[in-house]
Automatic annotation (TrEMBL):
<dbReference type="Pfam" id="PF13359">
    <property type="entry name" value="DDE_Tnp_4"/>
</dbReference>
<dbReference type="InterPro" id="IPR027806">
    <property type="entry name" value="HARBI1_dom"/>
</dbReference>
<keyword id="KW-0479">Metal-binding</keyword>
<keyword id="KW-0539">Nucleus</keyword>
<keyword id="KW-0378">Hydrolase</keyword>
<dbReference type="GO" id="GO:0004518">
    <property type="term" value="F:nuclease activity"/>
</dbReference>
<dbReference type="GO" id="GO:0005634">
    <property type="term" value="C:nucleus"/>
</dbReference>
<feature type="domain" description="DDE Tnp4">
    <location>
        <begin position="109"/>
        <end position="273"/>
    </location>
</feature>
<keyword id="KW-0540">Nuclease</keyword>
<dbReference type="GO" id="GO:0016787">
    <property type="term" value="F:hydrolase activity"/>
</dbReference>
<dbReference type="InterPro" id="IPR045249">
    <property type="entry name" value="HARBI1-like"/>
</dbReference>
<dbReference type="GO" id="GO:0046872">
    <property type="term" value="F:metal ion binding"/>
</dbReference>
<protein>
    <recommendedName>
        <fullName>DDE Tnp4 domain-containing protein</fullName>
    </recommendedName>
</protein>
<comment type="similarity">
    <text>Belongs to the HARBI1 family.</text>
</comment>
Length: 333
């Protein structure tokens, strides 16, 4: 975060962080309250360590972090994660075609397990297949590694495909209330295909959600499709990698109650978008080749039945990627 970006963030949040002075003592300034919160998120230091650094009480730091995170989410969520319009979806799809050579794509979907300390009296609710306790972050990311949609709070024991199926994203996609553009012909062809989001094998195949064909099938066309889908999906892996590099709190177990962890995850995602939007050199400040090695755990692969229409829609993209128009510029194939 640059000095200018911090100043802009402070200016936006100061009216909500301001506390009145009393006869007993002067209130902690909005600037210091924001600095304490960002220090906690960026380093993952304990509240006790930060309290020594800023000469504040341990309970004071705990309260500042919780209050500031809530204010950041409340004040910036609508700005950096706005309700998507049809034109905004089209712009995202155009960026995916220009940057990742994947047409009619509205975003890359993935989920990660955020490791937490076992909540008291929770039994196995948060216990996941990696034998850790976690909360799941489900995110849809655009071609430039910005979050478009985030869903936080699912318990680690929940089945990964079930998390998507119960999410508001899936419900709105099914109901047609996301302002998704009408079907469009794939570039340079007469193949009319829907706008889709792309995911890995952890997600079910839908008319609006593409997943890979079975791997090691020996089918050349399947391999080409999987390669192109995997290439476009790198943006969501990169987004999680940037998130964990910038906010080191993800490098270890988060020792807070689940409700507070949910708010912290939301805060880091909001700040991720805010910093990338307001820092000129942010986009190029990370080595994208190393970002996929995230400290967050992947979701398990999940099969399941799919409609015949979903198979036909995926077939359209497979045919396109194996055509002269779709394969142009891809030297590997």
């Amino acid at each position: 975060m640059t000095k200018e970006c911090f100043a802009l963030l402070e200016n936006k949040l100061s009216p909500h962080l301001h506390k009145k002075d009393t006869f007993m003592k002067r209130a902690i300034t909005p600037r210091e309250r924001l600095a304490v919160c960002l220090r906690f998120l960026a380093t993952g230091d304990s509240h006790m360590t930060i309290s020594f650094s800023y000469r504040l009480g341990h309970s004071t730091v705990n309260k500042i972090v919780k209050e500031t995170c809530k204010i950041i989410v409340d004040q910036l969520m609508s700005e950096v994660l706005p309700e998507m319009t049809t034109e905004m979806w089209k712009a995202v799809a155009e960026e995916f075609w220009l940057l990742w050579n994947f047409p009619n794509c509205l975003g890359a979907l993935d989920g990660k397990h955020v490791v937490i300390e076992a909540p008291p009296n929770s039994g196995s609710l948060f216990f996941n297949y990696k034998s850790t306790f976690s909360i799941v972050l489900l995110a849809l990311v655009d071609a430039k590694c910005n979050f478009i949609y985030i869903n936080v709070g699912a318990q680690g024991k929940n089945h990964d495909a079930g998390i998507f199926m119960t999410s508001s994203l899936r419900q709105r996609l099914e109901n047609g209330t996301l302002n998704i553009p009408q079907n469009r012909a794939l570039p340079g062809t007469n193949i009319v295909a829907p706008y889709v989001i792309i995911g890995d094998s952890a997600f079910p195949l839908k008319t609006y959600l593409l997943r890979p064909y079975p791997y090691n099938s020996g089918n050349r066309e399947f391999e080409v499709f999987n390669y192109r889908l995997g290439l476009a999906r790198r943006c969501v892996e990169n987004a999680f990698g940037i998130l964990t590099q910038k906010f080191r709190i993800y490098q270890g177990r988060i020792k807070m109650n689940p409700a507070s962890v949910d708010n912290i995850i939301l805060t880091t995602c909001v700040l991720h978008n805010f910093i990338r939007k307001n820092s000129e050199n942010e986009v190029n400040s990370f080595n994208l080749e190393s970002l996929e090695d995230s400290s967050l755990n992947n979701l398990r692969s999940q099969g399941g039945s799919a409609s015949s229409q979903a198979f036909r829609e995926r077939e359209k993209f497979k045919v396109f990627f194996n055509s002269p128009v779709g394969i142009s510029g891809m030297s590997e194939y």
